[in-house]
Automatic annotation (TrEMBL):
Top-level division of the source organism's lineage: Eukaryota
Protein's recorded name: Aspartate aminotransferase
Annotated ranges, domain Aminotransferase class I/classII large: 29-402
Alphabetized Gene3D superfamilies for the sequence: Aspartate Aminotransferase, domain 1 (3.90.1150.10), Type I PLP-dependent aspartate aminotransferase-like (Major domain) (3.40.640.10)
Biological classification of the source: Eukaryota, Sar, Stramenopiles, Ochrophyta, Pelagophyceae
Keyword annotations from UniProtKB, A to Z: Aminotransferase, Pyridoxal phosphate, Transferase
Molecular function terms, GO-annotated: L-aspartate:2-oxoglutarate aminotransferase activity; pyridoxal phosphate binding
Length: 407
């Protein structure tokens, strides 16, 4: 008998599973709008020229392949923190931000979730580790926290009537009612899967309201620069919370904005109240990371360091990142126009109001399924489409397919 004979198959990840169903579809006009990766106007994966240049500089520098420190490349971490918080940020200038290089966004989330899980034991509290996340949120969020032993609860996010806009009052009410001592997960910009963000005024209001609570705020920043095309603008929410004195946790990913998906480049950080606290927290981060994967990969971090640390290359990257964001915004407009041209009289303004890689169409599970069956247009069952999968050649076809199932 095999040692693994009793093991049942685990359910496939819904997005990865979608790729397989798409690959098996014989349609010649099929369109995949599931994948969370940027595609150029020809539907191909895209390597930013600034990243190619940085990579060739890295390789030409003949670097060695020694281990990184447990918390990664110190220069990379410093540049990452300046990128997110802004170089003038008070906690950075005062040397009280604990940080580590981590395995992209997911790896950072996992390490932070473990820190949250350990915190009560470390501080001698009897508090149960709990994290509140938006309903809906990125499909992996709950699993990452649950695997780390953190209880997951939800807060309202989407308006239950429109299903495509923010229920700000509901969100605020749920957060203010959250159990004291819990963690609140917030998407720093370009909320996934909805593309719906609070406005700058709403963020400010939320920051002020949450100052009166005993909640740990945790920003997941997976799209800085990629959302609006302006990395400074995309960091406004998290920076305003830091300015208001919140001791946030932050996870940064370089997957989308630098196109470094498979290189697994990211950083995590925690704003502390003193340099002593920062040292203690970093030692705890090391205690989590060392038995988990020992140290992070070095290649991608070297590329990011090259870009962020060189003014000319950084300016080039800024322009190229903006081009990606612009192309996505243009596809949003074309999709909306295409829906009108296809004869839809519905209000599709949310398609252009939403931001980032994804649009939440408002299509039901049944409509999504019907669109797959009738037009071979594939998106996730929640009606989320990856706008990056649209291009000039397929956008009218997709608009007609959406109209056909929603009229
Ligand atoms: N957080 C959010 C909100 C995301 O959308 C993603 C990517 N889909 C991630 C984290 C993690 O991505 P990665 O691990 O590739 O950086």
């Amino acid at each position: 008998l095999s040692a693994w004979a009793g093991v049942p198959a685990a359910p496939a990840d819904p997005i990865v599973g979608l790729n397989q169903t798409f690959a098996d579809d014989p349609s010649t006009t099929k369109v995949l709008l599931g994948v969370g990766a940027y595609r150029d106007d020809a539907g191909k994966p895209y390597v930013l020229p600034s990243i190619r240049e940085a990579e060739s500089r890295v390789v030409n520098g003949n670097p060695n392949h020694e281990y990184a420190a447990i918390t990664g490349d110190a220069e990379f971490v410093k540049l990452s923190l300046e990128f997110a918080y802004g170089p003038d940020s008070a906690p950075l200038q005062e040397g009280r931000v604990a940080a580590a290089q981590v395995l992209s966004g997911t790896g950072g989330l996992r390490v932070c979730a473990q820190l949250i899980e350990r915190l009560p034991r470390l501080t001698g509290s009897s508090q149960k580790p709990v994290c509140y996340m938006p309903e809906p949120t990125w499909g992996n969020h709950a699993k990452v926290f649950q695997d780390a032993g953190v209880e997951v609860r939800r807060y309202r996010y989407l308006d239950s009537n429109t299903k495509t806009t923010l229920d700000y009052e509901g969100m605020k009410e749920d957060l203010l009612g959250a159990e004291a001592g819990s963690t609140i997960l917030l998407h720093a910009c370009a909320h996934n899967p909805t593309g719906v963000d609070p406005s700058p005024d709403q963020w400010r209001d939320l920051s002020a309201a949450l100052k009166k609570t005993d909640l740990q705020l945790f920003f997941d920043c997976a799209y800085q620069g990629f959302a609006s095309g302006d990395a400074e603008a995309d960091a406004v929410a998290l920076r305003s919370f830091v300015e208001d004195g919140h001791q946030i946790l932050l996870c940064q990913s370089y997957a989308k904005n630098f196109g470094l998906y498979g290189e697994r480049v990211g950083a995590l950080s925690a704003v502390c109240s003193s340099t002593e606290e920062k040292a203690a927290l970093e030692s705890q981060l090391k205690a989590i990371i060392r038995p988990m994967y020992s140290s992070p990969p070095i290649h991608g971090a070297r590329i990011v360091k090259e870009v962020l640390g060189d003014a000319t290359l950084r300016a080039q990257w800024t322009g190229e990142c903006k081009e990606m964001a612009n192309r996505i915004q243009e596809m949003r407009s074309l999709l909306r126009e295409g829906l009108a041209e296809a004869g839809s009289t519905k209000d599709w303004s949310h398609i252009t109001d939403q931001i980032g890689m994804f649009a939440y169409t408002g299509l039901s599970k049944e409509q999504v399924q019907k669109m797959r069956d009738e037009s071979a247009v594939y998106c996730t069952l929640d009606g989320r489409i990856s706008v990056a999968g649209l291009n000039r050649d397929n956008v009218a076809y997709v608009a007609a397919a959406i109209h056909a199932v929603s009229k």
